[in-house]
Fold:
Amino acid sequence: MPNYAKKQRANRFILLCSILLLNACADKTPPFSIIGQEPEAADITAMIVNITEPKSPEVILYEPEHPVAYIVQKGDTLWDISSHFLRDPWHWPEIWFKNPQIENPHLIYPGDILAIVYISGQKRIQIQQRGEDGKIFASGLRIVKLSPRVRSKPIDASIPSIPVASIRHLLSRPLIIDKDVLDNAAYVLSSIDNHLANSTDDTLYVRKLNTSSGNGRYHIFRPNKPLKDPITNELLGYEALYVGETKLLRRGDPATLLVTNSVREILRNDRVITLDHTDFVRDFFPSPPTQKVRGEIVSLLNAISQLGRYQTVALNLGQRDGIETGNLLRIKHVGLVVRDLEEEDPDFRVKLPDEAIGVVMIVRAFEKMSYALVMEADRPVSIKDYVESP
Structure:
């Protein structure tokens, strides 16, 4: 059986290469081969690749041993795929090329074959062949059962740019509260049973709640630690500790709310704000900031002193600094100051250079600060590190 399986994989490899080689010759582009494994069916969230006319790629560095083709796997993200080809994955939109022979060429699905092609003498990447939900058989041929229906593929089956599940809570809940919002927010007065702590299905009485607008659903949060700029000591806002959600039962002052979900005990004086049902962003298009910036890490989410890939940091950079969702920043580690033992002066010190240790992507920007997801990290990220334009 092992030999038979190897023979099957070899046959599939040869036949797929032959198919792509014929396509390459027809397009008068250099030949390429397939590197990848047989994919599985997908059940992952949406990603629409932002397609623009490719820019000049002089500064775009490809990985020295990048594949000439790749079969998209279940669980891949656009960042993962880009990392196979590029030194800096955020250049992906600049080297992507829409294949006019492919339906919806701006969407990438598991099972799709991505290949290096040459357009006007420049390296580009495009979808060379659809994977038909990843069902590529050992013979290298795809079995398609024809039927009188519209063949479609849902957008939500395409691959995401980043692991959205890691930041879903950041996108759908309030996290940073301005002092003005905090001072004027409605608050929990008591409950129908006058309990000190409440949870799901309990009834609350809330004071100063504006019920004239909104959808009748509200967040409950608890003001946490104030976040200050480590350089200027400016108050950037208050970190909001998410407590739960409620729906309006009766207007008035106090208004009556029913707790529909809680993740921790609801206490008196917890704050209440309108629940915004605007769809959160699922598509992040990587880009550098429009201007040179440098910022400090002011908080580590769900970590005490260090964190790593796909964890979140709070930065002292916000919309007022030109920061937008999708912006990429390099993480820099501050070099130590060490004594040079070769020097006679015992107080002589040398500052070691700062080192780049990773990359973050802005996933939510507020006026004075932002949250960023660690996309790459060569070493643990700490509160003492900083970020700057790539």
Q: What stands out?
A: The first strand starts at residue 69 and ends at 71. The chain has three domains: 2-161, 170-274, 294-388. The two ends are 50 Å apart (CA to CA).
